[in-house]
Amino acid sequence: MTQPIVQVDSFTAEPFRGNPAGVCVLEADRPAEWMQAVAREMNLSETAFVRRREDGDWHLRWFTPALEVDLCGHATLASAHVLWEEGLLEPEEDARFHTLSGLLTCRRAGDWIEMDFPAEPATDRLAVGVAREGQDMAPQALYDGLGVEPSEVWRNRVDLLVVLDRADQVRSIEPDQTMLGRIETRGIMVTAPSDDEAYDFVSRFFAPKSGVPEDPVTGSAHCCLGPYWADRLGKSELVGYQASARGGVVRVTVKGDRVLLGGQAVTVLRGELLGQED
Predict the structure, then answer these.
(1) Which of 14, 41, 46, 272 is catalytic?
(2) Which is the most buried residue in 66, 87, 189, 274, by most CB within 10 A?
(3) Per-block average pLDDT, block size 10, for the chain (278 residues)?
(4) CA–CA distance, 23 with 75 (Å, rounded to integer)
(5) Which CATH code of 1.20.1540.10, 2.40.170.20, 3.40.1190.20, 3.10.310.10 fits the domain covering 124-256?
């Protein structure tokens, strides 16, 4: 028995850019240990495992090389792309995924895919420099790990949000992953206003604690970046550029407690996992 696997570059229309994700469409449920082993073998930031439900919807799980995560944007985008591309969904059908973060819905919008995700706003502002009474300090490892002085530091349910003054500061960071890995958080978003009129903001995302030193393009981070920049810029529709070495574009529409994330995707590899047991 073999298991087909597809590699998709998400948040880009060009091969070898954006964020690569593995996608396995399963005929039957598989143990979490097997999924983790496949994700470790693929060694991508996330590998997705998709299985059809009896009601026609889909189960979806995501694994980094180190652990299972409860929300991932680029591998959800990749999964929906594969279902449409392989004819498992009709072009006009929505992809409805049941996940650890609830029901996530994807729909086609021309050459783009739009994902309906829960917002993850930054709610807790941490002190930079001198703390006010009752305010937590940003961890010293954050300064040491990024090598920059932030203007703001926030925390949401799963990540830290670090705000810098200029886009070139975001691009020039050379992180100390060991220091960042000491911080108890899923990941660290670093962002600034864009210096390119095509985008509203730029960002990068580091997650050594989750086994991903730098994620090329992070859909789930935009569930926080979107609400932050929507509030700061006074607009609900934005375009973000994640300034990793591969780079990628994410459209964001903030709608209350939901965020619509728009991206493109391109398949770059098809293969088979050999020697799989029945």
Answers:
(1) 46
(2) 189
(3) 95 97 97 97 96 97 95 97 97 97 96 96 88 76 94 96 98 97 96 98 96 95 98 98 97 97 98 78
(4) 7
(5) 3.10.310.10
